[in-house]
Amino acid sequence: MKKAIMVMITMIYSGLAMADGPGVDNSTADAIRQALSRSTVININTTPIEGVYELQIGNSIVYSDATGRYLIDGGSLLDIQEQKNLTQSRLEYINRVDWDSLPLDKAIVSGDKKAKQKIAVFTDPDCPYCRHLEKTLQELKGVKVYTFLYPIESLHPKAREKSEAIWCSRDRHKMLQKVMLENHTPDAATCKTPVEEIAALGQKLNINGTPAIIATDGRRMNGAPRSVKQLEEWLASH
User: Fold this and answer.
1) Cβ neighbours for 184, distance < 8 A, ≥ 6 positions apart
2) Is the pLDDT of residue 10 over 80?
3) What highest taxon heads this organism's lineage (predicted)?
């Protein structure tokens, strides 16, 4: 996220004339440009909202307060000084999950089983992003992983039968990896599974896509991290 913010504020468009709209005083314009010193703000205009300014940066428009510290870009409120996406942080907070409410006995346990740090993962065996995450989890150290089988049948019609077959396997995690990483087709399920219960839990938690990762402090990551480093940084950022 920090990288994305830096990319946005470090765009440089040299040789473009700067001219501000009427109603923008010089002290405000100077403060905004100083705060965004790594960007060329071509034009600053007032908006119908008092204290909110329209900034043209290259061919894009963002919105700023009078200090240039806070930007509104693409539906997100950014704190440039602290390099934080405040909208994302707020969404993580209001969508946090009570870790103690998770039925961990209905999850596949892997990773470092003695680790104090833990995560829960909702995964679909036919989801390509889940497969990417499964590869990433192989590199993750010092974390205990609870994987909930959460097939999304509207997207992957065979995912439920694969999930049930994985659960009924002698070594669930080994079978999970074979199915997801080796495209293995498991034998049909021969036992009662918690797939239906996990489906109801996922709906209750508003998990609309996979993978979904939940930390013990309740924070949620939707989608697969690009790398194990990104996942480790997210886990450490609480």
Assistant:
1) 175, 178
2) no
3) Bacteria
Domain that residue 224 falls in = 99-236
94 lies in a domain? no
Handedness of CA 151, 157, 160, 161 (dihedral sign): negative
Q: Which ranges constitute the DSSP H helices of 15-100?
A: 26-35, 86-94
Give all strands (DSSP E) within the chain, no chain letters: 41-46, 53-57, 60-64, 70-73, 76-79, 84-85, 108-111, 118-123, 144-149, 212-215, 220-222
Has this prediction a pTM greater than 0.70? Answer: yes
Of 70, 89, 108, the residue that ends a domain is 89
Q: Domain boundary at 38, 54, 89, which?
A: 89
Question: Among 212, 105, 102, which residue's Cα sits nearest to residue 167?
Answer: 105
Tell me whether strands 53-57 and 41-46 are parallel, antiparallel or unpaired.
Answer: antiparallel
Look at the alpha carbons of 207, 213, 219, 223 in this order and tell me if their dihedral is positive or negative: negative
CA 137 to CA 231: how far, in whole Å? 9
Do the domain assignments include residue 174? yes
Please count the structural domains in the chain. Answer: 2
**Structure-model confidence comparison of residues 234 and 12, the more confident one:** 234
CA distances from 46 to 23, 49, 53, 91, 155 (A): 7, 8, 5, 29, 46
- How sure is the predictor about 20, in pLDDT bands with cuts at 50, 70 and 90? confident
Whether residue 83 is found in the same domain as residue 119? no
- Look at residue 7 and tell me whether its pLDDT is greater than 50: no
The answer to whether the beta carbons of residues 149 and 123 sit under 8 Å apart is: yes
Segment 47-82, tens digit of pLDDT: 999 999 999 998 999 999 999 999 999 899 999 999
